[in-house]
Amino acid sequence: MTDVVVPKWGATMDEATIVQWLKNVGDRIAEDEPIAEMETDKATAEIVSPAAGTVVELLVPQDADVVVGQVIARIEEGTP
C-alpha cells in the first residue's frame, strides 16, 4: 500500500485545499499520473501518484483543507 501525501510546494506553504479529485476509489492509476488538484494561496496544481496501481481510499473530501505531509489517499500497487 502506498500513501499519497500533500507535497510542499514552497518555503511558506503549510496548507492547501483539495479542489477536485481526478480519480475515484477503484480507478487504475499510473505512477506520476494526476490524482487530485490542490490549491494554495498562490497557485493551483496537480498532485501526482507516487506509484502505479488502484486507488483504494480517498481520505479527505473535495474542498477539504489539508496540511503538508498529510496522507490524502492510498494506492494498492500493481500495474495499471
TrEMBL record:
PANTHER family: DIHYDROLIPOAMIDE ACETYLTRANSFERASE COMPONENT OF PYRUVATE DEHYDROGENASE COMPLEX (PTHR43178), LIPOAMIDE ACYLTRANSFERASE COMPONENT OF BRANCHED-CHAIN ALPHA-KETO ACID DEHYDROGENASE COMPLEX, MITOCHONDRIAL (PTHR43178:SF5)
Keyword entries, A-Z: Acyltransferase, Lipoyl, Transferase
Domain Lipoyl-binding, chain residue ranges per copy: 1-76
Pfam families: Biotin_lipoyl
Classification of source organism: Bacteria, Bacillati, Actinomycetota, Actinomycetes, Streptosporangiales
Organism: Actinomadura meridiana
InterPro entries referenced in this protein's UniProt entry, alphabetically: 2-oxoA_DH_lipoyl-BS, 2-oxoacid_DH_E2_comp, Biotin_lipoyl, Single_hybrid_motif
UniProt keyword Acyltransferase present: yes
Names of the cofactor(s): (R)-lipoate
Protein name: Lipoyl-binding domain-containing protein
